[in-house]
Structures are given as C-alpha cells and as structure tokens.
Amino acid sequence: MIIDILTLFPEMYNGVFTESIIKRAVEEDKVKINIHNFRDYSTDPHHKVDDTPYGGGAGMVLTCQPIFDCVKNLRKENSKVILLTPDGVLYKEKMAYDLSQEKHLILICGHYEGFDERIRSICDLEISIGDYVLTGGEIPSMVLVDSIVRLIPGVIEEESHLNDSFNDNLLDYPTYTKPRVYEGMEVPEVLVSGDHKRINEFRENERLKRTKERRPDLLD
Ligand code: ADE
Predict the structure, then answer these.
(1) Is 141 in the pocket of ligand 1 (CB under 6 A)?
(2) Ligand 1 centre from 46 Cα, in Å?
(3) How far apart are the first and last CA of the chain?
(4) What is the pTM of this model?
(5) What is the CATH code of the structural domain delimited by 2-156?
(6) Which of 113, 115, 133 to mutate to test the pocket of ligand 1 (most atoms within 8 A of CB)?
(7) Which CATH class is domain 163-219?
(8) In which residue ranges of the chain is CATH 1.10.1270.20 found?
(9) pLDDT band at 83, cuts 50/70/90?
C-alpha cells in the first residue's frame, strides 16, 4: 500500500511513523508513506495557500489550486482520496479494515479556519475521527495511518486483531501476565486452569459484560 499525506506541517510527522509496528511495516515494504507539503504546489509567487473567505468572516481559508494540483500529480486509477475534516463521517474500525484493503490512499489535511468547499469535489471520502475540533487534519491522518497499517495482512499476527475491541461490536477481553498475585489482586483462576474451553467461554463472557457496562451503544 502507498499512503500519500498532504499537509502544510510535514515536521509534525517526525517520529510518528519511525517507531514500533509502523516502522517495521515500512521497513518490510508493507506500506510506503510519503509526506507532501502542498505549499510546494502553490503557483502563487509567495507560495500562498490560503485567502480570506468570500462573504466575510474570521480566519483564512485554504485555496483550491495547491491541493488540486498536488492530488492531480499523485492520483492513480486505484487511488482513494480522503479529506480529514470534523464534518466527515465518523471513523470506525470497520472503515480502518476496509481502507487496509486499498492500494493507494491520499490523505488531505485541512488547517486554519477551513478549506474552499470545492476541495470536497476531488475527494472520495471525508472522515472525522471524533466529535471534537482539532487544529488541523494532521493528527487525524496519523490516527488513520496507524489504525489502517496494523490491519494490512502480515503487519501483526492476525490473531492479535481478531478479538480487538470493536472488531465485532464487542470490546476486548481482559488480559493478565505474571505474577499471579500483584498487590493482593489475583489473576482469575480460569486463566491458569489450562482448560481452553473454559478460558474461551470466560473471555467471550467478559467481552459481553464489558461492552454492556462500558459501551452499551455498541450492542444496539
Ligand atoms: N480536523 C479538525 N478536527 C478534525 C476531526 N475531529 N477529525 C478529522 N479532521 C479534523
């Protein structure tokens, strides 16, 4: 998979994709992540990328030209162009899974007060990572990349994400490691019983119990 990210703040990505699982996925050529500063595409003599809003109002608005030209340059037949915006569809694990099957993603990070509405016309999908407003699409794009790349086949063991929270509308079951007793808190007996049928039943029950307690909305 190739992921191209369009941003005005490429330095925000320093370190994010060069550690842990994403780093390994890049090294093993499971994914190639390119960061593009779309200011480089501005035809304005001063490399301007924004302007005042028609009709008046506060702040600056990202103009069409640099983003259109950058996307034109990168887009291939099988590309999926995604705009990160608080008014996009709410991001869910199912979307991460679907996007992990794509060959090429182009992520556009908005900034400032907003972007020219016509930028939406070149996007296949608009995504919000939650009902809150961030200063730009950079952190949301990192969230997308992290959640998508871990689902690319071969990046982590498939078993690790089969029981992930949200995978089948249930939260994950609780896990424990050594020691068996820590500050008086004991590991549930069933987990040291060696009885795999009972262990699986315990885990399934815990997933259901947890989801009912913490996220009953997932069961609707
Ligand atoms: N840009 C600013 N806030 C955002 C959000 N919640 N999701 C996606 N992009 C954003």
Answers:
(1) no
(2) 28
(3) 34
(4) 0.95
(5) 3.40.1280.10
(6) 133
(7) mainly alpha
(8) 163-219
(9) very high
